[in-house]
Write a structure and sequence with these properties.
This protein has 407 residues and is mainly β. The chain is built from 2 helices and 20 strands. The chain has one domain: Porin (Beta Barrel), CATH 2.40.160.10.
Length: 407
């Protein structure tokens, strides 16, 4: 951990000193493809490069204020240093690239190496990626940078149902094909997997994000069998993009020293994501929906659901784009997010009544972008959440104001 701190501080200090000499600086790296797929998100980020140094550096930061109330009870005003991420990349040689992302959450309380891969380009349709990868389930897991969104909170379905920004050690192939207005992309990886924590956790329910708390997943696989993640995406530059992804594998330790101690129990996830910009009015719509199936042992109580589903839809409408103060193309947006998650799809065996444990939320927002890389956002959340017995729902509402920017 100390070495990680020293390395980051050294790189940031070095880049700051280097900026004193303008002859060393290049313009921030920009994606040369106007229309990109979600799978391009890891490289479609601004960064600063140096003409005499083969390393680029960049990142983003998120911070906000919020005050939330649940059934009349509030913790008052809260200031939150949500996260700071640092990107370090290098074009090692022709057709060989390296990119890493180091994330500091909650003021440095949590530090994670979120992405660190070597990409070897053999052909546009056949490229090798190895290292710490972001499993491409849905769209948000890869395309999660704060400055890209109009909301201070990440989607409930992407963080409390799916394990948001889920990364593992792994290897795989990816590729893209461009033809006129059409783009096609695929990814497929074998990687570290889930473990028993998805049904043995403090939430006392089936909870995939619990697997992120186990750092050993970067060194060993609990079941001994890799997790497979694959995605297909198609985009039309005039219509939008749709993606279909799958993630699945054995999560439990079914054998010990060659002795079978349990049957293989799987977790399987299917997700659909889409995004589109309506012509003329420029309304941007994006969202995803996921279905989860977990083979839960029959000895577990019915609060551990074997099926879950949920998703979100964001609608963003630009209302004003013009020169404001000294910003040439400042933009004012109104937006709204609709969310739903059911952590336990099914019925009680004894009564046949529906099992609860679900949540829905509506979050209207106003955002101001002085530039495309910086967003100031005001959100209001109205949320209803029911327990497993479908008692009257707890109501949460409140405001949050935040800023997020690339640097």
């Amino acid at each position: 951990m100390r070495l990680l701190y020293i390395s980051i501080i050294t790189l940031i200090s070095f880049s700051s000193n280097a900026q004193i000499d303008p002859s060393l600086l290049k313009k921030p790296v920009k994606d040369t493809i106007k229309q990109a797929l979600n799978m391009d998100a890891v490289y479609n980020r601004p960064s600063m490069s140096f003409s005499k140094i083969p390393v680029s550096i960049g990142g983003y930061v998120e911070t906000n204020w919020q005050k939330m109330t649940t059934d009349g009870v509030s913790e008052g005003h809260q200031f939150q240093a949500r996260r700071m991420s640092v990107f370090i990349s290098s074009a090692i040689s022709k057709r060989v690239k390296f990119l890493s992302e180091i994330e500091f959450e909650d003021g440095g309380k949590e530090i994670a190496l979120e992405f660190a891969s070597v990409d070897v380009e053999f052909h546009p349709l056949a490229n090798l990626r190895a290292g710490i990868i972001l499993n491409p389930i849905g769209s948000f897991n890869q395309n999660h940078d704060g400055p890209k969104w109009e909301f201070t909170d990440r989607p409930i379905s992407a963080t409390q149902m799916l394990p948001g920004t889920f990364s593992n050690s792994g290897v795989g192939l990816y590729g893209k094909k461009y033809t006129s207005n059409w783009m096609f992309g695929y990814e497929m990886y074998l990687s570290g997997s889930f473990d028993n924590s998805i049904i043995e956790n403090t939430e006392n329910k089936t909870f995939l994000p619990a697997a992120k708390e186990n750092p050993e997943r970067f060194e060993e696989i609990n079941s001994g069998e890799p997790l497979f993640t694959g995605k297909l995406a198609v985009r039309n530059s005039k219509i939008g993009e749709i993606g279909l992804s799958y993630m699945g594998g054995v999560y439990n330790k079914f054998q010990d020293d060659g002795m079978i101690i349990d049957k293989k129990r799987r977790v399987d996830v299917v997700a659909v994501d889409f995004n589109s910009t309506l012509p003329k009015v420029k309304t941007f719509i994006t969202g995803e929906w996921a279905w989860i199936h977990v083979d839960v042992p029959s000895t577990y109580g019915q609060q551990f659901g074997s099926k879950q589903h949920g998703g979100f839809v964001d609608i963003v409408q630009p209302v004003l784009k013009r020169r404001m103060l000294d910003w040439e193309n400042a933009q004012l947006n109104v937006a709204c997010r609709f969310e739903y998650v059911d952590w336990n799809v099914g019925s009680f065996r004894e009564t046949g009544g529906d099992i609860g444990e679900d949540v829905w939320s509506i979050m209207p927002a106003v955002s101001f972008r002085p530039t495309a890389q910086t967003v100031i956002r005001l959100n209001y959340r109205f949320q209803k959440q029911r327990d497993i017995l479908k008692n009257p729902p707890a109501t949460t509402d409140g405001f949050s104001i935040g800023i997020s920017t690339y640097f």
